[in-house]
Design the sequence.
């Protein structure tokens, strides 16, 4: 109970501020609408209700967004092109594939970097430079370019996700694989252990906490990568497309609904990685 | 183990650091040799040179009649570090089995050796525990078991009880003597405690810093059987006084700015 109470309090506060903000932000437009309709002296309570029920509000009220989420998921067939479950699944599959690519690439690069001084010096600057390029600029070129060589659908989107998500994994795993102390490595040297043995018996298990911390960041930005990639290929569907069409048509309620679905998806994905971490920790005897 | 005019210099930006200079020493099989001196006297460096963790820059050093590198590849010694350095994700038995896994012992042989060495350090019953569930003294005992598990003749110990409190240390010292008597191993033991060195050793090597060198080698006249209260006998105090004199002769007590 003493954990739920603060969370609920904050949630209620956010919803209250949101309702107030949507009155404030939608008020100018509502005033003009009422003037056009020659409605004078609208009572305040009715005016508030009007601002919460606009068709294309500047800031939709929470119940409008909740209603849209309900209508676009539970109330619709999941195969419908208007269903957020349908679009969410498209985004999720690109996210997961990209995350798998990105994590594998990140681990491989980290292994190369820690075992080879030359690759440390030659790879790391490029890896860092890759992340300074704005992804919204890279994504369309990649999607269009891959389309030209016949690669369409899921893979180009997953590649954008990979482009973002490998980075925290490289950085975390380089640190993690280098985390064993000097005496741990000296100990293996006294056993005349091979580098291969040192990797699997010491470096890899020692890097686990770093891997999971990186993967939590990685899976969240994989989702962002997938959404950005979808903006470049509106025919393919996905939450990104819903965001785009919503903003083109001024459908703010639709935008907010898609945003919440995306945020919820990210939360679930991070929680799944956290759960996996917990299971690995238990197997590794980490103090609870 | 034999060292003659052994020297080891670490290169440093502002002039090289001479960690060891002209060290001559012979250690016979079955001896318990302590290296004592203030920090910076090269005692740990000497131990690490025996273990082929540092390369001497001059002189010769042989372990079991071969180079330290070949001795290491032969798995001629077990090394116990200042910290227990157990893997936190392995249980005690799996930690002790680590060198055996690396050296390719079969699983039945491994289990038998783990059981035997854990019994040797009085840790039977703690096989399935993780390191954090054990006290500092028990962790260090587990690390000694790990060094013993593959039956090397030589045991190199670098201030293994330095981080433990005196009561635990006394207890482990007498345990170590019993262990030494039972296993008949050669032990090289680095310490900065005079009573510990005198209590344990058949030979005490007194070292002093800048440059790191041997100032005295004292052969103990104490009997091999040593109860803890031997430390109050005149003979014990006499040897301790000699060690102290040796340290003083090496200017080890002088304040260095």
Sequence:
């Amino acid at each position: 109970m003493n954990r739920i109470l603060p969370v609920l309090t904050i949630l209620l506060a956010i919803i209250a501020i949101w309702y107030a903000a949507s009155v404030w932000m939608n008020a100018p437009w509502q005033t003009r609408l009422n003037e056009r309709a020659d409605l004078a002296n609208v009572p305040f309570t009715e005016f508030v209700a009007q601002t919460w029920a606009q068709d294309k509000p500047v800031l939709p009220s929470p119940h409008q967004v909740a209603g849209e989420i309900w209508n676009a998921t539970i109330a619709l067939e999941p195969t419908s092109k208007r269903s957020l479950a349908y679009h969410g699944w498209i985004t999720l599959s690109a996210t997961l594939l990209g995350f798998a690519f990105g994590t594998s690439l990140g681990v491989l690069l980290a292994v190369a970097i820690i075992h080879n001084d030359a690759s440390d010096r030659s790879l790391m600057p490029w890896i860092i430079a890759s992340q300074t390029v704005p992804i919204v600029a890279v994504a369309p070129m990649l999607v269009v370019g891959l389309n030209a060589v016949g690669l369409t659908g899921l893979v180009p989107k997953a590649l954008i996700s990979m482009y973002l998500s490998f980075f925290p994994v490289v950085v975390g795993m380089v640190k993690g694989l280098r985390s064993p102390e000097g005496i741990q490595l000296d100990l293996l040297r006294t056993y005349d252990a091979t580098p291969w043995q040192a990797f699997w018996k010491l470096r890899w298990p020692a890097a686990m906490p770093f891997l999971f911390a990186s993967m939590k960041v990685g899976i969240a930005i994989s989702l962002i990568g997938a959404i950005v990639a979808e903006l470049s290929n509106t025919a393919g569907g996905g939450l990104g497309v819903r965001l785009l069409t919503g903003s083109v048509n001024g459908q703010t309620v639709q935008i907010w609904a898609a945003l919440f679905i995306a945020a919820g998806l990210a939360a679930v994905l991070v929680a799944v990685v956290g759960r996996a971490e917990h299971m690995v920790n238990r197997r590794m005897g980490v103090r609870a | 183990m034999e060292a003659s005019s052994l020297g080891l210099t670490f290169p440093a930006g502002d002039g090289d650091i001479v960690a060891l200079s002209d060290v001559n020493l012979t250690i016979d099989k079955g001896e318990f040799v302590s290296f004592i001196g203030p920090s910076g006297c090269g005692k740990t460096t000497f131990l690490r040179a025996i273990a082929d963790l540092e390369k001497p820059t001059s002189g010769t050093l042989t372990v079991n009649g071969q180079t330290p590198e070949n001795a290491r590849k032969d798995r001629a010694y077990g090394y116990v570090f200042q910290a227990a350095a157990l893997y936190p994700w392995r249980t005690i038995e799996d930690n002790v089995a680590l060198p055996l896994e690396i050296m390719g012992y079969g699983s039945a042989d491994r289990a038998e050796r783990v059981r035997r060495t854990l019994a040797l350090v009085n840790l039977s019953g703690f096989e399935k525990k993780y390191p954090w569930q054990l006290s500092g003294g028990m962790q260090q005992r587990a690390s000694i078991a790990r060094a013993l598990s593959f039956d090397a003749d030589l045991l190199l110990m670098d201030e293994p009880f330095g981080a433990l409190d005196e009561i635990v240390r006394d207890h482990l010292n007498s345990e170590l003597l019993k262990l030494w008597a039972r296993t008949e191993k050669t032990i090289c033991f680095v310490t900065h405690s005079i009573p510990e060195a005198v209590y344990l050793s058949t030979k005490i090597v007194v070292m002093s810093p800048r440059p790191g060198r041997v100032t005295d080698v004292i052969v103990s006249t104490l009997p091999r059987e040593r109860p803890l209260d031997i430390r109050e006998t005149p003979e014990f105090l006499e040897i301790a006084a000699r060690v102290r004199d040796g340290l003083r002769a090496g200017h080890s007590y002088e304040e260095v700015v």
Notes: Chain B touches chain A at residues 51-53, 72-73, 75, 77-79, 81-83, 85, 87-91, 98-99, 101-103, 130, 132 (CB under 8 Å). The first strand of chain B starts at residue 2 and ends at 10. Chain B has a mean pLDDT of 88. The first helix of chain B runs from residue 43 to 50.
